[in-house]
Amino acid sequence: MPRISLKKLHALKSSKVGITAITAYDASFAKFFDNCGVDIILIGDSLGEVIKGEKNTHKVTLDEMIYHTSAVCRSTKSSYLIADIPKESCKSINRLIRDAKKLFRVCKINMLKIEVNSKNIHYLSKLHDEKIPVCCHLGLTPQYVTSRKNFRKYGKYPSERTEIIKNACLAEKLGAKILLLECVSDEVVNRLKAIMKIPIIGIGSGKSCDGQIIVCYDLLGISYNQAPSFLDKKYLLISSFHARLKKYISNVKKFT
Ligand code: KIV
Questions:
Q1: Can you give the pLDDT at residue 256?
Q2: For residue 155, is it left (φ>0), alpha (ψ between -120 and 50) or beta?
């Protein structure tokens, strides 16, 4: 079976079938998720925490992303693959383009995810010029978090709401193909759903996004740090991981 295409992800959005996504960092987990029919696998730079045991994602290197992404690419056939560009690659636009091209050259991914804010959103236009397909990550952006206080809901204050909506619309205009919203308020998600054409995947952003993503270790019940407050603890009552993943998939398919 060929990999799921971006067109298929759009078709899921249009038909109001939720898009399922999960992180993976190695061949065995990725193959299992792929076989179970997960639409998107993200090789997230959350590997800085869950694999390397660091306190955040800030020190993840491009070589580490390539190592883990290659394992996921080799072991999967159907899921759409998105890999994070690490924080170190975003120090300059030239380095970003060079590193993004390397990630695509070495690993057979479908898309790159980049954490975006008002200061670096112009990077999207250069990535678009270079024909690099991009998922734009807005809201809580762990690469730019400097204190535990920043782990909160975004979009509760009017100025923050306006900024997220403005950046999301600009990202779509600058060629982003998927929007990922982390810890964004329901109000912002609902406003964006009414105006954006590209699929919106959420984490901690309520049930009305076009799809949901989860860190695989949170679903497994072995969160490296504290389990996120938005994790539905009912999943953890299902003892087989296969049944738990299937439940996650069927729940996400239903709620959009
Ligand atoms: O790195 C990651 O795993 C992520 C998810 C939390 C969306 O960005």
A1: 60
A2: left
